[in-house]
Each structure stands twice: as C-alpha cells, then as structure tokens.
Design goal:
heterodimer, A: five-stranded parallel beta sheet, 5 helices, B: mainly alpha, elongated
Chain lengths: 128, 177
C-alpha cells in the first residue's frame, strides 16, 4: 500500500536549523503535514493533542531527551504504536542498543543527507 | 598567625593557661578551615579535570574547527558551482554573500584558538596546584546517572559509528521483550 504523503509527522529538535533542514527535506520528498517541537516535553504534549503517524526526534535535548520521549511514547497506551526515528549525533554502540531496546524504529546519525533520510523513511513507513 | 597570638595574649590578661586554651581553640579553627578548603578544592576534581576533561575539551574544540572548515569548503564549492552554472546578477550577488559569510570559519577558528590557550593555562595551573598539595586532591571519578552516559554529543574521530555501522548494529540488536 502506498504511503499517504499527507500523514502527520512531528519533528523534534532543539536546534531550529535542524528543524528547518529536516522539514525542508520532508517537503521535498512530498510530505505535506509537518509539525515541529523543540524538546521532548513539547513533543509529548503535541502528540497527546494530535495523532501523528511518525516522530523524527533528536536525542540530546533538555529538559526531556529524545530517548526519554521515546520511552514515554512506548509506555503510553494511546501513543505506543507511533513510528519513531531518532536523528542524533550520538553514535556510540550503547546508545544504539538502548534505543533499539526501547523500541525505536530506526536510527540516523548526524550529519546525514537527503538520501539517508529517504532510505530510513522507506524502511519505517514503506515505499513512497 | 602572629595576629592570632597577639589577640590570644590580650584575651588571656597574663594568665598562661587561658592563653594556651585560646591558642588551642584558634589552632583547631584554623585546622577546620584548612580541612574545609581541601574538601572544596577536591570537589573541583582537579585530577579529573587535568587527566580527562581539559584534554577532552581541547579535542572537542579542534574537532569544531575541523568540522566548520570542511562544511565551509562544501558551502563555498556549491556557491561557486552555482555562480558558474547561472551567472545572472542576482545569483552572483547572493552567492557572493554566501562566500563572504563563510569568513565566519576563520573568525571562529581564531576565537577557539584563544580558548584552547586558556585551557592549556588552566591545565598548567592545576598541575602546579596538585604538586603543592602532594596529590591529596585525587577524587573518585564522577558518577554518571543511568541516562547521562548516553549524552556525549558528536563523537570524535575513531569513536562511535558512521551510518553503516549504526545500521549493522541496529539490525543485530533485538528489541526488549
């Protein structure tokens, strides 16, 4: 089944430049409904007031990290099925293991390019 | 010290045992003060700073200079390619602005070099301080809580994984049941 390009996507990053870069790349790929949050707490709040098909989050944010956000999402009965991709500069083995065990759907290390983002999106939500 | 003895003599009014009591009290207070000062200095974890944090900070700053240099090169290459492909006035003007703005790399590089010099100075002072205190400033390594260990930021060269490494690792790890 083809991916619905109007699916709501939430991008979470405390750097506005990264929000802008990921948002632009998603728009270039054809996605139309893109929201932004600048930390985990704001993301969680947005997710509880609107249903998102996919969350693309940074890890290193305050006060709530992307990893904590992932765990909160997976522990929440209503949100736990949301697809979740971490996009982060954290590239150590223990981070990847912890994220996978916490239920992340894919993991992108910064800096990344449009092709990497597209490949991971396809792996998580299917061909588009 | 001589001020303490002078004050004690005044308080004792010529009574030798009162003088000894006052001096003992003052010496105890001095000893407590020195002990507290050593504790405060140890809390700074000078050895930890000297052995790990300052050298690490220096490497992080060098990595910043390298990364900005590489990124600046890419930006300038792209701007020059655009200028070559579409040499109309607006494109030329805006590409020139991009290239001019890339001067930030030189300026930030110079500022970072200053910071590296400051870190080196602090490192040298810590070495001297540690020698004076005879190594008693050693402290236990800082405990990181469970999740703080994940927050290391971008890896230095040779640390962490690239995307291919992440992908291989990611496929190997099983999600928690």
């Amino acid at each position: 089944m083809a991916v619905d390009l109007s699916m709501p996507i939430l991008i979470v990053d405390d750097y506005k430049t990264m929000l802008r870069i990921i948002g632009n790349l998603l728009k270039q790929l054809g996605f139309k409904t893109i929201d932004e949050a600048t930390d985990g707490a704001e993301a969680l709040s947005k997710m509880r007031s609107k249903s998102y098909s996919l969350v693309i989050s940074d890890w290193n944010m305050a006060p709530m990290t992307g990893f904590q956000l992932l765990k909160e999402v997976r522990a929440d009965e209503k949100l736990k099925e949301t697809k979740f991709i971490l996009v982060t500069a954290e590239s150590k083995t223990e981070n990847v293991i912890a994220a996978k065990q916490a239920g992340v759907n894919n993991y992108i290390v910064k800096p990344f390019n449009a092709e990497t983002l597209k490949g991971k999106l396809k792996a998580v939500i299917g061909e588009f | 010290m001589s001020a303490i003895v002078r004050d004690a003599e005044t308080d004792a009014h010529g009574d030798p045992s009162a003088l000894v009591d006052t001096l003992l009290r003052e010496v105890r207070a001095l000893s407590d003060f020195i002990s507290k000062a050593r504790g405060e200095i140890a809390a700074i974890r000078p050895n930890d700073l000297k052995a790990e944090k300052l050298p690490r900070a220096g490497k992080e700053l060098e990595a910043i200079v390298r990364s900005t240099e590489e990124a600046t090169g890419t930006i300038m290459d792209a701007a020059e390619a655009i200028m070559g492909a579409d040499p109309n006035e607006a494109v030329m003007d805006n590409c020139t602005r991009i290239i001019e703005a890339c001067a930030f790399q030189d300026l930030t590089g110079q500022r970072i070099t200053k910071v590296v010099h400051t870190l080196t100075f602090i490192e040298e002072r810590l070495n001297s301080m540690n020698t004076v205190w005879g190594g008693v400033l050693d402290a236990q390594p800082e405990d990181k809580d469970d999740e703080a260990r994940f927050l290391n930021g971008p890896a230095l060269e040779g640390e962490g994984h690239d995307q291919a490494g992440i992908d291989a690792l990611f496929d190997d790890v099983k999600p928690a049941a």
